[in-house]
Design a protein that fits this description.
This protein is mostly helical. The chain contains 4 helices and no strands. It has one domain. The chain is elongated and about 90 Å long.
């Protein structure tokens, strides 16, 4: 297993980092908008109550950036994980075909007589 994964260590590490970044980015986005008791971003309600439009525009911009970051990182993670998975499967197929071709079987295949 170690020999199979060793050429892909860097790619697997990058995928794990992308998973962590995506989780943090998607977890930072407020999910519920039920009122001032929301604990997601309590400062948002302070800006809304005091009428600070610039503060709310900043929060909206941050929200859009976090959503875009989450989407972009998810897309990159999917592509990279898929490519690494395909390369691992290819390496495994090559390794299996080498081992099966390297050791010839002792029994010869039996041929069936042709039916006339």
């Amino acid at each position: 297993m170690r020999r199979l994964l060793s050429p892909h260590r860097f790619g697997v590490a990058v995928v794990l980092v992308l998973i962590v970044v995506e989780t943090i980015a998607s977890g930072s986005v407020p999910r519920s908008h039920s009122g001032p008791s929301t604990k997601a971003w309590p400062g948002t309600w302070q800006g809304a109550i005091h009428g600070s439009r610039h503060y709310l525009y900043g929060i909206v911009a941050l929200y859009i950036v976090l959503v875009a970051l989450s989407i972009g990182v998810g897309f990159a993670r999917t592509l990279l994980a898929g490519a690494i998975g395909e390369r691992l499967l290819y390496d495994l197929r090559v390794r299996c075909s080498r081992t099966s071709n390297a050791s010839p079987s002792t029994s010869s295949p039996t041929r069936r007589p042709a039916v006339s």
